[in-house]
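Check this.
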Amino acid sequence: MHMAHDISSSKFSSKCDINFLSDDLLAEIFTRLPFRSTVGCKCASKRWLDLISSPYFITQFVSHQHFLYKSILIFVTPHELMLAFREQSQSYCFSRNNSSLIEDILDKQKSQSLEIPVSFSPDMLLNGSICGCSNGIFLCCDNRYTYGSGYYVYNPLTKQSIPIPPSNSTSNENLFAVGFICNPYYDVHEGKKNVLKNVVAAPYSDERNFRVVIIKSFIIKMFHIEVDVFSSETGSWEHIIMNLPNGFAFAPHWLLSLSYDGSLYFMGRTSIFVFDPYTQQKDTLDYPQEADSMNIMSFGFLGISCGSLRIADIGQNDLRVWELIEKNHWDLLHRIDISTKLPQKFCANYYKRVAGFHPYDGDIVYLHSYTDGVFVCNLRTNKFEAILGYEKTDISPFQLEIKDLLLPSKSSSSIE
């Protein structure tokens, strides 16, 4: 009887082993794990590696994460996250003035299963620091990006990179602000195959059409700025000295710029420096009058939502979001006390900050702290939710639409 009991227990234990589960059940488990845990499971066995690496599982995994307020968190470096979003139709571009449309769409999404036709691997990692992203192409740096050298352009479709030669103006004694913009007038969908192929095959070709900008950083107000612009068409740097009648001083926490509507936006101590590296036009943009510039440059965010430029700050637990209507005219869209909405530990964290906006739903804002992770907040419905598994991780200051990172399908002829 003792032997029979041992045999029975052995059979029961073997059936309780997770490896006894079918691939479908394992996939259901893995899709519900945080990103880091799912990627870590690849190391457990060859079967798990094959399952998690399969295109079907990746689609399911991204689709599941997409339900978290329609956002996707991607590790772009081993320690850095990026907020990414699947492209949506124009009718999904929400604002505070079409709440009934939002409710209709959300109800429809709840009643239908959402499929996302992507084959983008959720564990894509880049080497080095991320300095900018434009039209699906990254500017990276193999050391500290503020040194003004070591830059390279990376194409995630081809997984190849091209180095950018150093500027003659760079020196180790200075810190540099960095900007990157890749052909803002080019439609990725109209000619993606030819242009992205040439990005790798023909360095600095006219079709690639990008600019890298570095500016010697300064924290006191200056009325003239020295700017270096690298052109993909010439393959060389141009040194430019320009006057700013209103003056400008860099925010020490923001030495990376935002690419928007053909220009680069650099956050400063009391204003924003706007520079078009194609036409060399420049301007300064004031912060909202009622905003605290210290909060904005330390814990705020400058980004794009619903096609418009937005800025947010978070002082104590007072979260505010503005939208630019015209030059130096900001409209306050949201103001809310988050102290009753989010965990006390997060609210008490001095280093919490705004991490991004949703590009299509103007009511959704992302908050982040290194110790507590990422929180997504719907300021219309007052729904606040933690996205688990991303504690002790930095978040990139870039928001990227996933459409620009789709891998070519097997039927596509050759993007190499």
The chain is about 20% helix and 35% strand. The chain has a mean pLDDT of 77. The first strand starts at residue 72 and ends at 77. Residues 322 and 332 are 4 Å apart (CA to CA).
